[in-house]
Amino acid sequence: MMRALGLAGLLFAVAALALTAGQVHLDAAALWQGITGGDGPGALTIRILRGPRVAVGLGAGAALGLSGAIFQSLLRNPLASPDVMGFTAGSGLAILASITAGLSLPMPLVAAAGGLATAVLVAILARPPGGARGVEGTPALTLVLVGIGVGFTTASVGSFLMTRLSGPQAAEAHRWLAGSLSARDWGHGLQIALIGGLFALVLVPQVRALKLLELGPELAAGLGLRVRRARVLLAATGVGLAAAAVAVVGPVAFVALMAPPVGARLSGARGAGGRLAAAAAAGAIIVVLADLVARASLPGLQLPIGVMTGILGAPYLLWRLSREMERGEL
């Protein structure tokens, strides 16, 4: 309990730090005056300069953390996450294709369609030849490896589509694909809060199914769970959460991969519900901290947050792969 409260305190501290720190520093007194009095530089920072991007970062990070926790529990593999398996890349490709075609469609729907299409493609390609059980009989590691391949393919197609855009459009698309909180407003914050919150509510009644699936499909079925239906619903919820985040910040890499183990380690959570909540908090912390470093590390230059999450996530992925090799899983 104390560790869970510590994680919540860390989340609050990181949000406060992101509001006050940057290339122009804001002291705590000015921030407090802005919150309580609604005037001064603190109010300007909260309403316009940093408040919206912090809110968007918190929401998107939480959605990515939840999505990663769902897939890692569902497949019982620490490498399973929507970014590693190409689902976020598929969402990003769908949005990029929509922009290139000049379509004016709601970005969350486009991202969700792209993520779901990619998930179905991964399931089809990973299915063993002649496998009577379909994706049910596919090893989790096979799904992960096929997803990595599909992710690289979608990224390549996205690079091709960017060549069809004008110079400024291509530059903005490239920045968005790397993940960015720049120029986000309260409308984006409301969007991720509503859509991400909706999928989180959909997830709540599925926590029991996730807990049973962690015992193994046979035992879960023996306890009365409709395994195939539960897996499909959980996967769709995970893809929806990732798509909600991609629609506002881009396909930020490695957050969904790192957040579940980081959240579990910091909070000490053991149950499925506790680990989901911890993953959401850890994802929010990672995204907000990455954005803070990205905008404050180099004077006069704001880096995409994907650069910072990549610096953290790539070594973690290599370490995770080495652990799997030591265990004989690779």
Summarize the structure.
75% of the residues lie in helices and 0% in strands.
Task: Please explain how this structure is put together.
With 330 residues, this protein is mainly α. Helix content is 75%, strand content 0%. The protein contains 15 helices and no strands. The chain has helices at residues 2-20, 28-37, 40-49, 51-75, 87-100, 107-126, 140-162, 167-177, 186-203, 207-213, 217-222, 227-249, 255-267, 272-296, 305-326. The longest helix has 25 residues, at 51-75. The model has no long low-confidence stretch (mean pLDDT 85).
Radius of gyration: 20 Å
Q: What would the average pLDDT be, to the nearest integer? A: 85
Q: What gross morphology would you assign? A: globular
- Count of discrete alpha- or pi-helical segments spanning 4 or more residues: 15
% residues in beta strands: under 5%
Major sheet size, sense and barrel closure: none
How far is the first residue's CA from the last residue's CA? 36 Å
Q: What is the share of helical residues?
A: over 70%
Count of individual beta strands? 0
Secondary-structure element pattern, one letter each: HHHHHHHHHHHHHHH
Structural class: mainly alpha
The protein's oligomeric status is single chain
Give the uncertain stretches in residue-range form.
none
SSE blueprint and pairings:
Blueprint lengths: L1 H19 L7 H10 L2 H10 L1 H25 L11 H14 L6 H20 L13 H23 L4 H11 L8 H18 L3 H7 L3 H6 L4 H23 L5 H13 L4 H25 L8 H22 L4
Helix pairs in contact: 1-14, 2-3, 4-9, 4-12, 4-13, 4-14, 5-6, 5-7, 5-12, 6-7, 6-12, 9-12, 13-14, 14-15
